[in-house]
Amino acid sequence: MHAITIPEPGGPEALVWAEVPDPVPGEGEVLVEVVSSAVNRADVLQRQGFYNPPPGASAYPGLECAGRVSALGPGVVGWSVGDEVCALLAGGGYAEKVAVPAGQLLPVPDGLDLTLAAALPEVTSTVWSNVFMVAHLRPAETLLIHGGSSGIGTMAIQLAKAVGARVAVTAGGPEKLARCAELGADILIDYREQDFVEEIRKATDGAGADVVLDIIGAKYLDRNVQALAVNGRLAIIGLQGGAKGELNLGTLLNKRAAVTATSLRGRPPAEKAAIVAAVREHVWPLIADGVVRPVVDRTLPMRDAAEAHRVMESSTHVGKVLLRTAATN
């Protein structure tokens, strides 16, 4: 098969489309013939040499894919050759084939194009696990999403609105904020021009956000806590603004607030399977009913992954950037 390899860390040009050995599904795994994959920030970090795959995972980038089951490993039940699926991966999505634990497979939602399904596994698993399973967002509460126009952000807006929450977003510029508004965002904050702490307080009569979903990390840590309501929950899922920051614990104590930080890629398969099962139960019906949809900025040939990474790094996109293989047609 062919896959995107990274012979040496570097810029987008470090991504090389090369012939590599076919993967073989092990115990409890299925082999998926990949139709499409999606680009995530973690892929960019891996390309740069900063985020290696966990032990035992594929060396190729790609944390999600969509395609068709082409073989079953020993012990797999509930899936058949030919099933159209999408999958949460620890790596290997930028390839024509990938072996994946059966517990990380999802059926393609009813009515959704197979190619577009690659935009779902990582964002739905990340948002559902952090916003709902960890931070316990409830109806009528306010969720502040940093990076509202990102793949994570566009999904978080829709899921929060679907459960009856109020949604605030930060994004860079009026065009991205307008797209967030189209998806249901109620409070629009241009982080280039406005102070999100001040704006969220204005919008909530001084109360603050009940939940903050943060991709920035250290740069926003203290301000995120300032923006929290009493009993608020800060969920950190990214470190685009650095890994080390200072936090006023007195503010945290006074607000009886909580700070959590999670990653998805390195979790044990059993934990990933539990998250995927929750996504199938709670999110998949919303997609099938048209309440929630994947937001895709563009789709490029997988061999042009370097261009997809340039788009990701430019931050000009809204939603997901997809990669398609020759198997798409």
* Coarse shape: globular
| Helical fraction | 25-40%
Strand content: 25-35%
Counting DSSP H or I runs of 4 or more residues, the number of helices is 10
- What low-confidence regions span 5 or more consecutive residues with pLDDT below 50? none
Order of helices and strands: EEEHEEEEHEHEHEHEHEHEHHEHE
Q: How large, in whole angstroms, is the Cα Rg? A: 19 Å
How many β-strands, per DSSP?
15
Q: Specify the biggest β-sheet.
A: 7 strands, mixed
Helix/strand-derived category reads alpha/beta
Distance between the termini: 17 Å
What value does the average pLDDT take? Answer: 96
Give me the oligomer status: single chain
What features would you describe in this structure?
The chain is α/β, with parallel strands linked by helices. The protein contains ten helices and 15 strands. Strands 3, 4, 5, 6, 7, 14 and 15 form a seven-stranded mixed beta sheet that branches. The protein is globular, with a radius of gyration of 19 Å.
